[in-house]
Write a structure and sequence with these properties.
heterotrimer, A mainly alpha, B mainly alpha, C alpha+beta, A: mainly alpha, Cytochrome C Oxidase, Chain A, about 0% strand, globular, C: alpha+beta, five-stranded mixed beta sheet, 10 strands, about 20% strand
């Protein structure tokens, strides 16, 4: 099924061609992984600073506070607070989660799991990474501009994000950085889509692809279609700021009042809602696969899962209006968006049924990747169900822009996606670096993260329902929020626990990568997808011979097997009774 | 399920397919960019009681029409170039058509600059209202793409000069052509939507 | 619930939490939304609780599957997995049944209820020709709320208008219609005690109506990020009994006539009142 013969390219020899400007999808994947982990660290520290300000208003931030804010004696000032939550959102979404799941595992897994030697366009792949670096440099650089970084929230609603609300150059740099990142991700998406269509190993039909590839592929399609929409919005915002156009300017502070700030919200959410699924689809795919691998039985209803993912992809493009109920859209639009939003629950429920069906009557092994995957089922359950309150227009009138929303989207976008990423890192570590992560520390990492994470995000649901709205530097200036001080303190301690437990992961990861013992078994998890048929770490040409696929990716626990293995490689003829 | 293990013996056909699939994705991405712009345009147009708003006059059609002629002609010369090049024509038969395409493209840019200068001389600035913003931004974004496309057209000169047409050259000529025609179509849409109606 | 509260309080104490933890509230009391003073706020709360009950039921099912299967089918207990693709007729039926039951039992159910509340109450604008409504115009700006009441002439944007900063006073038991704009960036008028919010957007008029029943003083907040001092964009809501309201309004109107500086053009940020009919709003 591969469209053309793939040659074995000579191994790169110099340091630069091997590690810096590498064409090799595996090296680019690792580059994205480090990039994403750095982003997670940066965004995580910002999150802790936000939490600190909410729980202990007026107290100096420990350790680094005095160096960062000498003029206030270490207390986070309100304008910095606004920059912090803006940057936290932007970094976590575009510079942490996207590079880890889509950049790192998209690059690493797609060619290995579909059995080809590299991406269809290796040069474009490399450019995609270095454009992402450029974009990150622009964003981090904006922190050092005179008026500081963007401070209008990650959604950058005009007119706050125009010169009326943020005169500094930071907001312009933010928009440019997002635009450059959009180009980078679109290039990646073009590559992924083409690779999956054209370079699948001979014999591999679409439903023989592992569900991970389904998730990544659908994500790439959404990326290719909807990132340009954000690009257009970002461009017009830059024009408004730099060339004085009037798209989003209105009201008394504008020079002529004919633009409309709500247009940006439409454009942003046309992109923004699919973006949620861009982030979660790869995690769903990875989890669906890992649940099957560690239950030692085929994925339950794999075809239905793939089709549910596809239908969610399509539905996700039709529901963006539920982010805008409070802007008072016309009632007809409001009702339409509410109804469409609710239909997403059908494929989601089928997902859950299939996930639980996969572990039903399995032989479950609780290795770390499995723990994280089961964790995704738990937290995504919470995240999905809390979405119901927000898709419903009347409850949203109260809950919109409260911490309930924050809790909800952290459960779906942060918790689920983070757990999916960790599952993927623990699972593919031996194939990426040829080393295993320490299992004991991995499990400790999981349980501490699980504990901290639920403390943080469930706490947010509580304070949100109690009426605390978002993006407040000091919520306790309001009388009705003062009773929430203890809960906020509790959330912050949970966040600190969650933050500190990531140190376990970082140490575990760095130790394994640099000093860890080589894993000699090329297939430590005993699964049959194509990447496990080759030595670990994967050689630079991946497959000495392009494999021929003869069965599906989840052939585990077949009772008719006569070998001493309980699984079949995809290159083997399916054993039937 | 039938599981055949046929590698395409004809690698050329495969490479052609890969290239065109990727190009379809590229063009879908670009279309979404321009579609968002047109969405913004229709949003303003629908919500505004009169158009152009606030008693503005429409843009004089002289320069936009000239641009339209230039870019449509350039698309045609490119098609001639492609046909001759793929037909194995000699350099002196093919190259003039490519050069003509580039000159017409440059002419398009020239008329765009004249349009902007003309508009400015009439006191029509990007900052004076949303209609002006729309006219300028759309032509700017489109012109930026034209500049990139012109660079790729220039790149085609060394590619097609004195070289046999293998699959690599064929893909390059095809993809640059698709991009050029795509920008042509986008301009035609802009011409009718923004300037004419 | 006592167990949860004491556990929670204990955690906070152990963590050396804030002094305010000693105000004697239980955890359950803390997570209650602010007091509902409006005629229709209970609709929102009721729907919230209803959804919560359904959610707890379905999440319990997920947890039962997740933890139950993890326990029953661990490698030790169940060394031989059941080899199935989940494509048997019964399997597909069960998965589809779960999908449809979630969709019909929760989604379409709450959509229907929410839609009824929405069309029946929240956008069922009072007919100003027939009903006596209390009208207010609001202009939001960084970082304050301006409230405008018509003066004695009953017309907005004239020189005898009553204009107050961060101070909204409305009568109890009467329908209040608010029209709002924003001067600079997008704000959102948030009345936690009425369970409502609506954005104030530059360049367009947005509307909200509600009926409050309980006199007293309450908070108004801005719910949409509007800049550095977003958290300070606070206003007070005073709900008066009918008689108190009339007395205050008469006094304020008198004062406005005497003290208003009619030369100051900045005072005239108001607009001609736009009678809200359903049709008009749906044009937005």
């Amino acid at each position: 099924m591969a469209f053309y013969e793939q040659h074995i390219h000579p191994k790169p020899t110099t340091f630069i061609s091997k590690y810096i400007f590498s064409y090799d999808h595996k090296v680019i994947g690792k580059q994205f992984l480090w990039y994403g982990i750095l982003g997670l660290g940066l965004g995580g520290i910002m999150a802790l600073m936000i939490r600190w300000a909410l729980a202990f208003p007026g107290e100096a931030f420990p350790l680094i506070g005095r160096f960062m804010f000498p003029e206030t004696g270490g207390v986070i000032p309100p304008d910095t607070y606004a920059m912090l939550f803006t940057m936290h959102g932007t970094i976590m979404i575009f510079y942490a989660i996207t590079p880890i799941l889509i950049g790192a595992f998209g690059n690493f897994c797609i060619p290995l799991m579909i059995g080809c030697r590299d991406m269809a366009f290796p040069l474009m792949n490399m450019l995609s990474f270095w454009l992402a670096v450029l974009s990150a440099a622009l964003l981090v650089g904006s922190l050092f501009t005179p008026l500081g970084a963007a401070a209008g929230g990650w959604t950058a609603y005009p007119t706050l994000s125009t010169l009326i609300g943020s005169p500094g150059v930071g907001q312009t740099l933010w928009a440019v950085a997002i635009f450059v990142l959009g180009i980078s991700s679109t290039m990646g998406a073009i590559n992924y889509i083409t690779t999956v269509i054209t370079l699948r190993a001979p014999g591999m039909g679409y439903f023989d692809m592992p569900l991970t590839i389904w998730g990544l592929w659908l994500t790439a399609i959404l990326n290719a279609i909807f990132l340009p929409v954000l690009g257009a919005g970002g461009l017009l915002l830059v024009f408004d700021r730099v060339f004085g156009t009037q798209f989003f300017l209105a009201g008394a502070a504008a020079t002529s009042g004919t633009g409309d700030p709500v247009l940006f919200q439409h454009v942003f959410w046309i992109f923004g809602h699919p973006e949620v699924y861009i982030l979660i689809l790869p995690a769903w795919g990875i989890v669906s696969d890992i649940l099957s691998f560690f239950s030692r039985k085929p994925a339950f209803g794999a075809k239905a899962t793939a089709l549910s993912m596809t239908s969610i992809t399509i539905l996700s493009t039709l529901v963006y209006g539920h982010h805008m109920y409070t802007t008072q859209m016309s009632p007809l639009l409001t009702q339409t968006f509410m109804t469409l939003t609710m239909t997403i629950s059908i494929p989601s429920a089928i997902f859950f049924a299939n996930w639980l069906g996969t572990i039903w009557k399995g032989t479950i092994k609780f290795d770390t990747p499995m723990l994280f995957s089961l964790g995704v089922v738990f937290v995504f359950g919470l995240g999905g169900l809390t979405g119901l309150y927000l898709g419903t227009v009347t409850t949203d009138l109260y809950l919109h822009d409260t911490y309930f929303v924050v809790g909800h989207f952290h459960y779906t976008m942060a918790a689920s996606v983070l757990f999916g990423s960790f599952a993927a890192i623990y699972f593919w570590m031996p194939k990426m670096f040829g080393k295993m992560l320490n299992e004991t520390w991995g499990k400790i990492h999981f349980w501490l993260t699980m504990l901290g994470l639920n403390g943080v995000f469930f706490g947010m649901l509580f304070v949100g329902y109690a009426g605390m709205h978002r993006r407040l530097y000091d919520p306790f200036v309001y009388d009705f929020l003062q009773k929430l001080v203890p809960i906020n303190t509790f959330i912050t301690w949970s966040a600190i626990l969650m933050g500190l437990s990531q140190i376990i992961f970082v140490v575990n990861f760095c130790y394994a990568v640099f000093w860890g013992k080589e894993e000699t078994d090329p297939n430590p998890w005993k699964v049959g997808t194509l990447e496990w048929t080759i030595p670990s770490p994967a050689p630079h040409y991946n497959f000495a011979e392009i494999p021929v696929v003869k069965c599906g990716p989840h052939e585990l626990g077949n009772p008719n097997l006569t070998t001493d293995r309980d699984f079949q490689y995809q290159t083997e003829e399916l054993v039937e009774a | 399920m039938e599981r055949t293990a046929i590698l395409h013996s004809d690698s050329i056909e495969g490479k052609r397919l890969v290239s065109s699939i990727a190009m379809i994705v590229v063009l879908v991405s670009f279309s979404m960019l321009f579609a968002s712009l047109f969405l913004g345009y229709s949003y303003f147009r629908i919500t505004s009681p009169v158009w152009p708003p606030m008693g503005m006059e429409k843009v004089d059609l002289f320069f936009p029409t000239l641009s339209t002629f230039a870019i449509v002609l350039s698309s045609m010369t490119f098609m001639v170039f492609k046909a001759k090049y793929f037909g194995g024509g000699a350099v002196n038969k093919t190259m003039p058509w490519l050069v003509a395409t580039i000159i017409l493209g440059a002419g398009f840019m020239y008329t765009q600059f004249s349009l902007w200068a003309d508009l400015k001389s009439r006191g029509f600035y990007a900052s004076s209202g949303v209609f002006q913003s729309l006219v300028y931004s759309f032509t700017w974004i489109h012109a930026a793409h034209i500049v990139i496309a012109l660079l790729t057209l220039l790149y085609l000169i060394p590619v097609t000069m004195n070289k046999e047409c293998t699959i690599s050259e064929e893909n390059k000529v095809n993809n640059v052509g698709k991009f050029w025609h795509f920008l042509d179509v986008v301009w035609l849409l802009m011409y009718f939507i923004i300037f004419v109606i | 619930m006592n167990l949860v509260s004491s556990l929670f309080e204990g955690l906070i104490m152990a963590a050396g939490g804030h002094g305010k933890v000693h105000d004697g509230l239980t955890f359950w009391q803390r997570i209650q939304p602010p007091e509902d003073i409006s005629e229709h706020g209970h609709l929102i709360e009721w729907l919230f609780n209803y959804t919560t009950i359904l959610n707890i039921f379905f999440f319990a099912l997920v947890c039962a599957g997740l933890f139950g299967f993890s326990f029953l089918y661990s490698a030790k207990r169940n060394p031989k997995p059941y080899y199935t693709y989940g494509n048997k007729k019964s399997h597909i039926m069960v998965a589809t049944a779960i999908g449809l039951s979630v969709f019909l039992a929760i989604d379409m159910n709450i959509t229907r209820m929410s839609n009824n509340d929405y069309t029946g109450v929240f956008i069922n604008w009072p007919d100003e020709d027939k009903e006596d409504v209390y009208r207010v115009q609001v202009m939001a700006q960084q970082w304050a709320w301006h409230f405008r009441y018509p003066g004695k002439d009953g017309v907005f944007n004239t020189e005898d208008d009553v204009v107050y900063l961060n101070d909204l006073r409305v009568p109890a038991g009467k329908k209040v219609v608010i029209q709002m704009i924003s001067k600079d960036v997008i704000h959102s008028l948030y009345l936690p005690n009425a369970r409502r919010k609506v954005d104030a957007i530059p360049g367009r008029i947005t509307r909200i109506w509600f009926k409050l029943n309980k006199p007293g003083k309450y908070d108004i907040a801005c719910a949409e990020m509007c800049g550095t001092y977003h958290y300070r964009m606070q206003a007070k809501l005073t709900v008066y009994e009918e008689a108190d309201m009339n007395a205050w309004m008469a006094e304020a109107q008198e004062k406005a006539i005497q003290e208003n500086d009619s030369e100051n053009l900045e005072r005239y940020w108001g607009w001609t009142w736009q009678k809200t009919t359903r049709k008009e709003v749906s044009m937005n």
